[in-house]
Amino acid sequence: MKILVTGAAGFIGAHVAHRLLSSGRSVIGIDALNDYYDPQLKRDRLAWLHAVGGDFTFHHLDFADDEALESALDGQDIRAIVHLGAQAGVRYSIDHPRAYMRANLAGHLNILELARARQVEHLVYASSSSVYGARPKQPSAVDDRVDHPISLYAATKKADELMSETYAHLYRIPQTGLRFFTVYGPWGRPDMAIWKFTAAILSGRPIELYNHGDMRRDFTYIDDVAQSVIDILARPPSDDGRGKPGGSIAPHAIYNIGNNRPEQLATMVSLIEQACGCTAEKILLPMQPGDVPATFADIDATARDFGYAPTTPIAEGIPAFVQWYRDYKGL
Ligand SMILES: NC(=O)c1ccc[n+]([C@@H]2O[C@H](COP(=O)([O-])OP(=O)(O)OC[C@H]3O[C@@H](n4cnc5c(N)ncnc54)[C@H](O)[C@@H]3O)[C@@H](O)[C@H]2O)c1
């Protein structure tokens, strides 16, 4: 039985695939290795996966291309799918809307069609905390209404949840959507604040703090996230007609994967400064369009159903990231 991991060369996908391979599972990875950020980092993550030495097959392809997807996977026995490939990033969606339409809408549909054709046991897919929009209510809970996205990225993630609901209803494909809240850690993404701040501080460049630094985020360490994806993959929602987190009565549940412990941006910056051993020059800027001042997760449903309890505080996770960054860059 093989597990298909989409976005396997991406940040979260590589960690999930690494854990699966390390525990002896067979993994097929797919990724388009797009240039949203440096594709060399994606190739290096793939080398990290191949180094595990397990049963890992990789296909370099665009899953928005249904024919390429089907022909690459023809004859493969796929029992479960972890769909983590997507066009990520809130700000990029302002200038590149079509990238989101292709990867997140056409791409998600193609993965649903694959799940239907193969009658998979479980499709776990990535949604995002950004579906909560600019809501004053915190923490954000999976049963809250999420009808007011403030970026096209968020709109496509909400659309993914809706498409998944339809497929769970029509074809009874067990699915779980995960709304991730700012994931960080080794092999992270260069477009995210922790990476950008670390890179700037280590090279003596100033850092930019949006909303004048008054931002709060649930920072979730990658090891906590990757383990939760694997735990959740093992337990598909049952088709019992009962209401699931997120409100579905089909075999489709939605969970928050966050920390329920929002941290001030200033705390994060000072931990990076300590780990780098130098102080940052700070430029204070206004809020960016499409961004929100605070997001943190109500994780009660995830804790109740999976015993989910993130164990890595930022005081541990940030030094671990900075150490990895220095090793990776040879600094
Ligand atoms: N990292 C976070 O904090 C965070 C927060 C919320 C949601 N998410 C979601 O989690 C998922 C994983 O995020 P990540 O941080 O690993 O992002 P990432 O950008 O590192 O990984 C996504 C991968 O998908 C690949 N990809 C994009 N379009 C593709 C296509 N059409 N065909 C094949 N591959 C394609 C990219 O090349 C990339 O390697 C995404 O769905 C993202 O939207 C992440």
Q: What do these coordinates show?
A:
This protein is an alpha/beta fold and 331 residues long. The chain has a single domain, classed as 3-Layer(aba) Sandwich (Rossmann fold). It has helices at 11-22, 39-50, 66-73, 92-95, 97-118, 152-171, 193-202, 222-233, 265-276, 300-306, 314-329, and strands at residues 2-6, 26-31, 56-60, 78-83, 122-128, 175-180, 183-184, 207-209, 216-217, 220-221, 252-257, 263-264, 282-284, 294-295. The strands form four sheets. A seven-stranded parallel β-sheet has the order 3-2-1-4-5-6-11, with helices on both faces. Strand 1, helix 1 (11-22) and strand 2 form a beta-alpha-beta unit. The longest helix is centred in the N-terminal third of the chain and has 22 residues, at 97-118. The protein is globular and about 55 Å long. The protein starts with a strand and ends with a helix. Bound molecules: nicotinamide-adenine-dinucleotide. Residues 7, 9-13, 30-34, 42, 62-64, 84-88, 103, 107, 126, 128-129, 180, 182-183, 189 line the site of nicotinamide-adenine-dinucleotide.
